[in-house]
Structures are given as C-alpha cells and as structure tokens.
Amino acid sequence: MGQQSVQSLLDDIRLLGGKQIELVESVRSRVKALMPGVAEAVKYGGILFHADPDRFFCGVFAYKAHVSVEFSRGARIVDPWGHLEGGGKFRRHIKLHSMSDLDDKRLDAYLPLALRAASGPD
What we know:
By secondary structure, the protein is an alpha+beta fold. The protein has helices at residues 6-14, 20-34, 100-104, 107-119; strands at residues 39-43, 46-52, 55-62, 67-71, 92-96.
C-alpha cells in the first residue's frame, strides 16, 4: 500500500467534525511561514515536517479531543514558558484545544527551537 498523501490525511481529519482541521491547517501555515523550504510528509498518522529529509523536527496529529504538535527532540528544548508536555527520552508535545492555544502556548516560539534541537547530533 502506498504512502498516504497530505491531502488525503487532511480529508480524513475533516471527517472528525471538530476544530481539528482548522488547528492542523493553522499549524501547517505557521511552520511554512516561519521556515520556508521545510517539507512535509505523512507518517505515523500525522503530518511530519523536515528541513533535512532524514531528520523530522516536528509533526502535527489530530485526535478526537485535541491536536498535538509533537517535537521530535523536544527533550533538548529549554522550556521557558512551561507548555511542553511529556516525559519520554526524546519527544515533547503541546496540546491544542482551541485556536487561541496557538498563541497562548507560543507555538511560533517553539517551532524554531524544535528545528534547532533536531539539528544537533543524536
């Protein structure tokens, strides 16, 4: 079976019927505006973003009650605002429940930090 396209995944997210599609599209727009040249791919049921084809730095995933922005090397991010969640060895995430969370949880500030964190050596 072939890899799902971004548009096909967005169509599936639309079927959830909530604010998820608006949140996912807003995350995509912000990533593209802040980091021109970043590419996206569908993996693990979400849209992953990368500047280097072998190194994804973040992704956006839609769930029934929220949208999660996952940072691949989020554990390396110094978190001055305290919005990162998770306690795993590598990843951290921010949960978005409403459009205001995009600004309230400072997504635009975390995105370049996530790219920088993922660019370092493993």
